[in-house]
Amino acid sequence: MKPSILLLIYLSLAIGGAAGIVYYQSTLPDTEQMNNDVSQKLLSIDGLNASVGELALRSRHHIDNNYDNLTRTTALLEQSLVSLEQRYFNPEQLKDPMLLRNFELLNKEIMIQNDLIESFKSHNSVLRNSVRYAPAAGQNLMQIAREAKLIEAEGLYAQVVRELLEYALLGSSLSEEKLKIALPKLAEIETALPEFAQIAHLEFTRHVKTVLDEKALTDQYLSKALLTTSSSKIQGLSQAWNQWIMQQSSQAARLDQWVMAYIAFLLVGLGFIAWKLRSLYLHLDHEVAVQTAEVQKAFDDLKESESKLVQSEKMASLGQMVAGVAHEINTPLGYISSNVDTIRLNMGELDGILQSVDMISQEISQSKPNTKKIGNIVKRMVHVYRSMRQRETLSEIEDLLQDSSYGLSEISDLVSSLKDFSRLDRTSVLDTDLHQGLDATLKICSSLIGQRQVIKTYGQNIPLIECMPAQLNQVFMNIITNSAQATADDGVIEIITRATDQGVEIEFSDNGSGMSESTIKQIFDPFFTTKEVGEGTGLGMSISYKIIKSHGGDIEVNSLLNQGTQVTVKLPLKQSQASLSVIK
Amino acid sequence: MFLLNAGFTDRQVLAGLLFVSLGCAKATEPTFITPIPQHMAVDEAKAKLGKTLFFDKRLSTDNSISCATCHDLNGAFGADGQQFSSGVNGLQGTRNSPTVFNAVFNFKQFWDGRAHDLVEQARGPVTNPVEMGMATWTEVVRKLADDSQYVEAFQQIYGQGINEDLIVDAIAEYEKQLITPNSPFDQFLNGDESAITAKQKKGYELFKAYGCVSCHQGKNVGGNMFQKMGVLKDINLQSGSLNEDLGRYEVTKNEWDKRVFKVPSLRLAVKTAPYFHDGSVKTIEEAVDIMIEFQLGRTVPKDDRSSIIAFLESLVGEIPEGVL
Amino acid sequence: MPTLADTVVTQPRPQVLLVDDEPRILRSLRAALKRDYDITTASNGRDAQKIIKANANLSVIISDERMPGLLGHELLAWSKQHRPQVTRILMTGYSDLQAIQNSINEAEVFKYITKPWNIGELKAVIDDGIIHENTHHQFLDSDRPEPTNECLLAIMNRVNSNDGIYHKVAKSLAKKTVMADDIGAVFNVLERHSNVGVLFVDDDRVDADTVNTVTLIHEKYPSVVIIVATSAADGNSAIKLLNSGQIFRYLVKPLTATRLLPMLQAAIKQYEEKAAKQAHIKQAYSDDTGDSLIKAYWQKVMKLWH
Q1: Which end of chain B is more exposed for a tag (fewer CB within 10 A), N or C?
Q2: Same-domain check for residues B168 and B56
Q3: Residue B120 appears among annotated catalytic residues
Q4: What ipTM is given for this predicted complex?
């Protein structure tokens, strides 16, 4: 497998795993902090709960004379539960129904307990008041009874006060019974009392009754409050909590194990990938070195091949030129040499006539010429001559000589064109007559141009320009060759030269096949060619472009498909220093 | 609890504690009433915002009533002197407005104790149709949000936009400051024998002797428990209307909660007439009489009553500076 | 007594068509050749076609390659279709490889003459061509058994890279094929198998050695049809192979079986036609037991003496 794919898989696994763990962890509570907090709160609730009982007992027995502490404690207990509920024990936070139920039970229990405490407080206050007041009232009534000599009444008051105290302070059930028996008796003695004491008696009786009622109620509420199962509920909740926490911790521990396994997996994966990458890197390093070498080689090859191609383009144009020139020269050369042979042959016949003439002159010069012999010679001579005349040998010789002379002038022209074209005698930048170069190029291309009509419209007073004539001729030949190849055999190639403000403009136009937009765009690109493979290097126009640019000139191509092509070469009069160095 | 766990019976425990309590009673003077603190720790910024809200009539539907309308801090010691306060559109409630001073020391709020604290209390009146009469708290929030100063203040103090919880929190925070420390009696409790008059001292003794202190105890001289109206004498025998309101029963529906009310603080009793849950009793004298008769099963001579009232006057403290 | 001139005038002369767009060439050639041949000239391919069509007795066409309109090899290829017995000679000023290839493979020219020409050589080539077409006497391999219709294909593969193709082609041709990897082996094969009709030479380095070998084989076994394939195409050696080895095809690599197959089939056909012709001629000789030759000779002598 590719390391990149491996890395991708690894990364997706890593991210997926991490996301999974994070998600799972997010579903898990922060158990440690939570446990600390809840445990602490439960402990404090336990403590407050214990305090409530203790403080209630203190109030019951008048150790505390106000309820501030008790009230504050019950309030704190309630607040603790409320905050515990808000923080942890609500269905949004806690998904454990068991624990929620335990908390709800505790909450209810505490509420009940607090209600009982409130009831206790109310009744305890009343009881306390009566317990404090009743003995004093009883003593006051004992005094009145004593003064009124109501011994029985005095004794009853004393008994009631005693039993009341014993009942109130020690909670003796026997005293309670006695008090209950004494109450009707108290009602009986009311009438015996002096009138002023009757209200006091009634008040006393009411307070005694109150003590009897309220003590029972107070103790009932208090014991109920103390006996509420809130404590065990807290324990239950604590246990449930601990269990839950353990469960969570085990879950967390499991998660930890998973995380450890996951990290181990990641490390192993990472190690593997690192190893892979390392080997890949080493491989790559090697690859890169190889590739670099290859690229370097390719680059070198390309440079070499480019220079080879440029060379080959030169050679191709040279070859083309040579081919053209060879054909141009071989043709006259062919008939000249043939003509010479034919003439020599014909001269043999003439030689016979001349020999006959000689023989005749010899005969005549003798003292006694043999007329018959002369006659025979003349006869034969005339025969030969007639035969020659019949075969038009003499006019033929005339024609052949004329042709040969023409051929020789052709060859001579070509040779001088060749000289003009290549300008091998001129290797430096010179003031050059472009027309001379154009003519030489046309001459050299004449075999290629063939029957095509060449219209030369050379401008007047075209100045000499500073250039490398051989290079420019190469450009001209390139353009003319392209024109010739693009046009039909009866096509027209027009060359116009004109002087401009900047220098000279040479316009080549033809009525050939033209080029499409895309071809025009690529025409100066190296290796771009529309010719068959092997027919052109595709460098001709590219080199032409270079040459013209290096001369500080410009070359423009306009063409319409199937209409023709127009190539305009603009050349400056003088070369800048920079151009000069480039050209050379 | 540890005692219960140790396996004692309640009787044994009670007996043991009785012994302890008797020993203790002999050793020291029992502390029925304690002084209130000089200061309450509050968040000054929140309290300041709460104060603005406390006085802001925009909390009512017709912009006529603020908290301070019924809890007049300047003239009426945190109440309004009326039997029933007038809400929006002249509507009236059924219970007397208690003073807001020292309310922080009450174990529960409202006469029937239906609110656990000041925050819970403050939610009530705003949307009560006969009090401030706002339709919803959303409405309140929208109204306050029109005031860019509020928006800015809430943002600055709470770091969030205005909402119900923040409004009541701020008001409650302010109300914590509304306490009356340094009463003559508190100074007496702190050891200044000369802080109260002899009559007031006598009144305190009578206050204890008649048993008033059974319920009116603690630092707020009440306000830390519930009690039934008419524990020693049937309240139906009272000539007024005190028997009509079933009090906490309306909240709990427990039979034994009928006519049970929060024992009110007596710290500003002499300043906040009329009296009782329905404000039906005009004078302090009458109120003392009714209490001693129906709650304590006694009658009180005028001298004693006068002394007790003198004692009650010594409970009036100072309003701390800068809270009004 | 008949004069020399009379003899010249009265002799029946082969008809030669000269085609060139340069009038001076035509004039010069006419002047040089008119003593020995009946000369007709045309300045372009179209005119030449008309003349070829009209003249059934035409023996030789000598055409320039570069002409406006029809190119030389195109004209000759056309001529091959219409007058296959006419000897086709291409004359050009420059050895353009493509033109040479075309003239060998398409026009199946007899010889390729480069300008400037030597008139004596030109005449010899024309005479050769006439004899080549009319008598085929050079076909008679002196010391070799008679060719048969059972053609054998010999392949001289000096490259050893195209064996696969050759095996494939040989299989398709259903002709016995002998492979040889050097010159000695080729001569051996030709010695031992009288029925080798086609020799395929695969040589990437066509040098003087190859040219000489092919020339030797052609001289010794003129009935063998020779095809040369090379990757180093070169006009000059192609001309030499044609002119002195009379090769049937000149191929520039790469080779494929589909390209080779029709080529070899054409070569085999060529061989079979030649073989048939030769058999016919031989038959004629044996029938006349030399009389017709003597008759013809006597006729010539009598005419001279007339």
Answers
A1: C
A2: yes
A3: no
A4: 0.86
